[in-house]
Amino acid sequence: MLIRNAINTDIPGILNLLLQVDMVHHNGRPDLFKGPATKYNAEELLKIIEDSMTPVFVCVDKEKVLGHAFCIHKQVVGDPVLTDIKTLYIDDICVDENNRGNHIGKLLYEHVLEYAKKNSFYNITLNVWTCNPGAMKFYESLGLKPQKICMETIL
């Protein structure tokens, strides 16, 4: 297995993973997630992959995409309340459902962590849906802690 920056030939595999992510969310919150769908199409993925501010890392085995991590560089500058820290936001992380339990997610996260350290980020953040307790447990096992909590009332 190898973790590297995504390239255009990875797009079909990434789309498959995005569909898997959507279905986890759709099954957990069908009131919010349409399913089956992907949050990006192939054309959008190509632009994301080519943008240095949105690095996408993939775990591949013989060029088969087994997992991905989408990241976004974020920085608030000159805010009257918030400090000018540089954050690496994990927009999406997924391991193919047929390859879970093989530590691919941990390897991807460790790669993101090294990237963040090498590029002088202050922190790494991500969002996780409460309807995905497996993901919550996984992130906690990596040492992530809640930063803020979004709450709702359905009317």
Describe what you observe in this structure:
It contains 4 helices and 5 strands; from the N terminus they run βααβββαβα. With 155 residues, the protein is α+β, with helices and mostly antiparallel strands. The model has no long low-confidence stretch (mean pLDDT 96). The protein has helices at 11-28, 42-50, 104-118, 133-141; strands spanning 2-5, 56-61, 64-75, 86-95, 123-126.
Task: Outline the fold blueprint.
Layout: E1 2-5, H1 11-28, H2 42-50, E2 56-61, E3 64-75, E4 86-95, H3 104-118, E5 123-126, H4 133-141
Parallel strand pairs: 4-5
Antiparallel strand pairs: 1-2, 2-3, 3-4
CATH class: Alpha Beta
Identify the CATH homologous superfamily. Gcn5-related N-acetyltransferase (GNAT)
Please report the total strand number as a whole number. 5
Distance between the termini: 47 Å
Helix-strand category: alpha+beta
Low-confidence spans: pLDDT under 50, at least 5 residues? Answer: none
Domain tally: 1
Which fold name fills CATH's third level, the topology? Aminopeptidase
- Indicate the proportion of strand residues: 15-25%
Dominant shape: globular
Largest sheet, spatial ordering of strands? 1-2-3-4-5
The SSE string, one letter per element, is EHHEEEHEH
Radius of gyration: 16 Å
Number of helices: 4
Strand count, sense and barrel status of the largest sheet are:
5 strands, mixed
Query: Could you report the average pLDDT, rounded to the nearest whole number?
Result: 96
